[in-house]
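With this grant's support, we have settled on a layout for protein records. An illustrative entry appears below exactly as we store it:
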Amino acid sequence: MFDTLTDRFDGIFGKLRGKGKLSEKDVDEALREIRLALLEADVNFEVVKNLVSRIRDRAVGDELSKALNPSQQIVKIVLEELTASLGGEAMQVTFAAKPPTVVLMAGLQGSGKTTNSAKLANLFKSQGRNVLLVGADLQRPAAVEQLRTLGAQIDVPVFSEATDPVSVARAALDEAKRLGRDVIICDTAGRLAIDEALMEEVRQISDVLTPQYTFLVVDAMTGQDAVTVAESFHSTLGLDGVILTKLDGDARGGAALSVKEVVGRPIAFASTGEKIDEFEIFYPDRLASRILGMGDIETLIEKAEAAYEDDEAEVAAQRLMDGSFTLDDFLQQMQQIKKMGPIGNLLGMMPGIPKEVRDVEIEDSQIARLEAIIRSMTLEERAKPDLIDASRRARIANGSGTQAQDVSGLVKQFNEMQKMMKQFGVTPKKSKKKSGGKKNKRRRSGGRTTTKGPAPMADPSVLMNESIEELSSLRLPGLPDND
């Protein structure tokens, strides 16, 4: 969503890094470009005005003059102020001491209330909560049936009645107590636009449920209109937070950067995809870091921990470092990576990834093609790709529905990756050699001094400095070139 804004910030900060000392004129020029970039991203005008003013107050004061590197300090200031505009810290949801904890979902029709009610239920369930979904949207045809279908996918019961929304809400409290459910998530009806009937109905449901949390579901694609909607609902219900949907879309992202500062309520959760588990707690600092092109390593680590088993990851890493990593291992790793989400999103979370790499479109079909090629190989060919000659190549290509050059490209790039990764580790056999010889002298300079225990990895910063040109040309096997 924020690709365009990220590219703009890359250009702005790139100009600043080229200058050893920044004048007030340089700062003003950078702030002017930041202002334009935010306005083009459909950020609310008042939010932009306040944000740029705060940045300027800090950038032209003592804070910048005392910095060893003024350009880096400006980036730090922008990051901190952007984080503050997004809410500062992640919202902490606490549960009622006397169950059930009631959550009311409100919003316009088409914003994704029903789907995100189920996503929120799935998140709470993963935290050990017993959730009851309540279908109080009796206006939209099949809304309750949609909620039942989603509830069945995550094994969460859904309660609804063919009466009226207020009666459904009242009966849901008794049902939750009967079933021993400690969290109620109530999906309400939406309209195509804000009207008195919608507000009155939601207000009556809120009076019956007295929810601990009232969340407004906002479609990030609506731009600044999302702020107007949030203000209207907040004046009627008293919102506790916002759930931002469709963050994986191609909208400019102005709603995410505007709603907290205008409405005064934080973004609590964000929907990052269509799948039921593509829903997460909203971290302002992480999103600000991604917008500025600094990656989001914490979220990346969390996704990896959720997708990988510790033992499997350790074995795979060791095989990769000692050169015994095969195409069969690579196939298994691709399966794990797919669990973490779209490759493009993962690249956006990696710090230091060049713009050219981030902009590469990697579709699921490309991953599927790699899988098809590897699955068309025999086990022996996966273990020893060098065995693949012209006739084997033709057979693999026919079996996978690809071309012979695709097979050759995969094998070639896989071999390149193996050679590169060997530079980052020491094989177990070599690690048992004594360190007295000339061949081992350089390798031992940053390694262990004992002869027992697992082989350590060398200092990553040293390796990066020594191999930066080689690393910049490294690609995942079979994926598009960076240029």
